[in-house]
Amino acid sequence: MTRCCGRRRRPSSFSLRRRAASLWRYGIFVRSDCWRDRALVAHELAHTAQYERLGGIAPFLKQYLFECLTIGYPAAPMEQEAIAEARRLEAGRLA
């Protein structure tokens, strides 16, 4: 279980309707009830960094979806990287 907008949710709940935020190129769309959640924004910014590092939306989606479908969403390395960045922020260690 993870926290999102003051509620606990299962990490595998990937429904777009339930998502608190999503990434599209340089836009991060955050639900109005979650906009103050700094860890959530840090998580989505980590995905933005991955997008840049991989060279665009096509390589990002290819890698991200491959990991989610073969390893599983909660254990996918790119998702784990984003989770780690959010935790670093929460711990006050984000540079």
Question: What's the structural blueprint in terms of helices and strands?
Answer:
Elements: E1 2-4, E2 7-9, E3 21-24, E4 27-30, H1 38-54, H2 57-70, H3 77-90
Antiparallel strand pairs: 1-2, 3-4
Helix pairs in contact: 1-2, 1-3
N- and C-termini, Cα separation:
27 Å
* Mean pLDDT across all amino acids: 79
Strand content: 5-15%
Oligomer: single chain
Helical proportion, percent range: 40-55%
Name a few traits of the molecule:
95 residues
In short, what is this structure?
With 95 residues, the protein is an alpha+beta fold. Helix content is 47%, strand content 15%.
Tell me what you see in this structure.
- With 95 residues, this protein is of the alpha+beta class.
- It is built from three helices and four strands; from the N terminus they run E-E-E-E-H-H-H.
- The chain has helices at 38-54, 57-70, 77-90; strands at 2-4, 7-9, 21-24, 27-30.
- The strands form two sheets. It has a two-stranded antiparallel ribbon with strand order 1-2. A two-stranded antiparallel ribbon has the order 3-4.
- Strand 3 and strand 4 (27-30) form a beta hairpin.
- The protein is globular.
- The termini are far apart.
- The model is unreliable at 9-17 (pLDDT under 50).
